Amino acid sequence: MDSIEVLEDAAAAPRRRERGGREARRNGPVTAPHLSVPYIVRNIPTYDILGEENLLKIEAAADRILAEVGIEFRDDPVALDLWNAAGATVEGLLVRFEPGMLREILKSAPASFTQHARNPAHNVEIGGKSVIFAPAYGSPFVMDLDRGRRYGTIEDFRNFIKLGQSSPWLHHSGGTICEPVDVPVNKRHLEMVYSHLKYSDRGFMGSVTSESRAEESIDMARIVFGRDFVDRNCVILGNVNVNSPLVWDGTMTNALRAYARANQAAVIVPFILGGAMGPVTNAGAIAQALGETMAGCALTQLERKGAPVIFGNFLSSMSLRSGSPTFGTPEPAIGSMVIGQLARRLNLPLRCAGNFTNSKLPDAQAMNEGTMSMLSAVHCGANFILHSAGFLDGLLSMSYEKFVMDADFCGALHSYLAGVVVDDNSLAIDAFLEVGAGKHFLGCDHTMKNYQTAFWDTTINDNEPFEKWEAAGRTDAATRANARWKQMLADYVAPPLDVATDDALVDFMEQKKAAMADAWY
Amino acid sequence: MDSIEVLEDAAAAPRRRERGGREARRNGPVTAPHLSVPYIVRNIPTYDILGEENLLKIEAAADRILAEVGIEFRDDPVALDLWNAAGATVEGLLVRFEPGMLREILKSAPASFTQHARNPAHNVEIGGKSVIFAPAYGSPFVMDLDRGRRYGTIEDFRNFIKLGQSSPWLHHSGGTICEPVDVPVNKRHLEMVYSHLKYSDRGFMGSVTSESRAEESIDMARIVFGRDFVDRNCVILGNVNVNSPLVWDGTMTNALRAYARANQAAVIVPFILGGAMGPVTNAGAIAQALGETMAGCALTQLERKGAPVIFGNFLSSMSLRSGSPTFGTPEPAIGSMVIGQLARRLNLPLRCAGNFTNSKLPDAQAMNEGTMSMLSAVHCGANFILHSAGFLDGLLSMSYEKFVMDADFCGALHSYLAGVVVDDNSLAIDAFLEVGAGKHFLGCDHTMKNYQTAFWDTTINDNEPFEKWEAAGRTDAATRANARWKQMLADYVAPPLDVATDDALVDFMEQKKAAMADAWY
């Protein structure tokens, strides 16, 4: 048909917006470039599933847990002093909180803040209607179809930063994308922060495995952004976990306080596998998460009033047959909607986990569980979605193939979150009057005017007719993803970093390393 | 750990509810049997993304399309007469409708009705908060991992009925699950309806490919349910498609009227690939769908006031590079939310399409696109979700492996749609008081009381640790699904059907067949 040919010709050389055009050409096909943005501003409401009465019950349960059971703060006497001064009841390591106390403290935390990137075009607003996709975090292993599962190395770590930087659908470079196991444990944070700053120009996350590593992560950011700027602006995030149930370890609270002290944003995340670290029933696990997270968020405000902080969520379930943790299952997916409602009632930015799965391969299971989990994160109103790309094997492995599949799905979500625009152009009355009953819309004015920005277009999923797909080699999505990440790495071009800054970062890193013997655990 | 062992032992022999228990033993592992129900009553709200103002704009656009462009009704003079008598403007084949006219006519259609199954335990309520999962519909090809893609046969057709009947997570036997291409075209409806009635005891759909085939489908239902019962109750559905844009073909309207005349429910479904059969912009395609569907639904009421009818939705997009239809993409997924809102404003039951994909394999793409599409269907409030299981290859192939994967996901959605229950038990305050900070919940009273009904448990997805998965053969989900459908077919037991009824059905079928020469197109 003539009109299809017209569309094809035009689509073969789509006009690209200035921003992103150069990257697009460098890194192979970028379809739907009009959707590429530094971060998404959602144009659909959040999916609120509980009414006021039930939310109040959960909040009341959290208040009872905080007041009657309390939270232990281990190995951090300063935290205990801060709680004592704030009026909490401290007995030994156990801290108990009068109902309402933490909510009052949390009023000083900002509802939204900017994380600055070293390329200001990649600054992200965290809070409100913003949605930011960041890679998965924390796997000891990496996987690809050629070499299978193996421990991650600093080369893998850099590769994932490069893949993220090359994707127009991620907005943030993440943190411990995989553990670089070939680097001594006590020096990893230096290499990781340096790699983020060197190979990406987006926002990133620093170390939380000790107070000094957190501080050194922030120090490296100060080299790039300047000390005064960092004191006034958020340039680095630190992701700290509750030792659920109801325990904050000193390693985490010391790191949390280091970030807050520097006016940088801690992300406060419980880790609740229902039935193990919390009740098997969703409402109880949610109440617990609320209590644990409020306590962590409030501690940032006691350390430095007004410091940015992010309310984190990591609900999960477990297999009742094996006791294994499960990921991407329905209960955490629906439970996250409630966490979102609760975070908004606290007026805090929300972090959720994205593309969760327990699959060991980038297969149907991986994307079934991952897609359900990722949609839950965008529906619940998460502003910062960690684990958006690469997660396999119950967070034990980063997968190269899954990374690019997930990044492609993040692209699709750019269109999804744009919602349904209703205006004269989108209602297209003139097109109906032009085309009439029983004719096609392929060549009509309205189609020609709108088709380039009409639909998301994937680079991984195959939409060809069966015969064309067969002739092209009958590939599955994983095979196409394998080719895609290799091409992206081959095409990667590092964002410019001025030599003096680079040198200063390397000097800092080398000095710190020279002062430490290698530690491997 | 002792407590995990306790859980494992108990979970190995879960108590099963009486209902479903026998089937469960017959058909292999049914995990989470407490979730199995004849149909789901949703316990979460619909996901409403547009406000009143924008909905009114879309409704006004639909009204303008109906009034100013109109809809052609081809090859059905009776339909034109009905429209004329109802006050529409009929000029040749073109029918135009004053704003509000169709809404007024639609007031006689029931907001909800029961489709009776031959086993009353499998009756489904269609409307309100009900959610019913039915298999995919209409593929000429079938696929499995062993034999690849081939034309469907009556044996495949029966196999899919058996797989559906064996799944505790589907609620309806569907209709043309695949085309039985080895049966002459003019006799297929007889074999298909007979197979549904013989191998399943759930609700099903009849033929719509001609008025007489529709009537014969209904006649066969009358043999099972009795003529009077059928005149008063819905026992069969007929799925009729608009020839979008804005054309109703006589084949469809004659079938539609046959179902309505018999007080059976027609499902009225536009087929809009944005940019081809409708505008490339979502709002316009939605307005068109609303207009086309209202017209079809209203025609059922002109044929028989009060007949049950279902508002159908089938939005899709197309690849701008190849012109191919695409499935499981973000624009139809988000657009369906709006269709749901519009259907509820008409107070009509809603049908959506479920597990859409263009993938040619049961791979990551299939479940990425399928999961997004399926979640869209459950979020938008669809009561009857066709294409819930088996869909591959852009509706050209039914896949055995995808069928059981999708059915498993339907199971997960039973837990998802149960939402978050908030009550004293689920809030688990006593458990927190019992366990305290820093201990685990594995063996506590609350866990022991609730764990068997706490979480969905899959039969396809793998939740074992990597090493166990590796030792078990490193299977992907498709390989496990391949073993699963074979086991399900091997274990299948037909539901009882009394011999006299069976004989009467066979007699009817043989008589009709004997009166026709084979037609192959």
UniProtKB/TrEMBL annotation, chains A, B:
EC code: 2.1.1.-
Region Disordered, annotated ranges: 11-30
Keyword Zinc-finger: no
InterPro entries on file: MttB-like_sf (IPR038601), MTTB_MeTrfase (IPR010426)
Gene3D superfamilies: Trimethylamine methyltransferase-like
Keywords associated with the record: Methyltransferase, Transferase
Pfam families per record: MTTB
Coiled-coil stretches noted in the UniProt entry, renumbered to this chain: none
GO biological process, one term: methylation
Listed GO MF terms: methyltransferase activity
Enzyme class: transferase
Similarity comment: Belongs to the trimethylamine methyltransferase family.
Record's protein name: Methyltransferase
Organism: Hoeflea marina
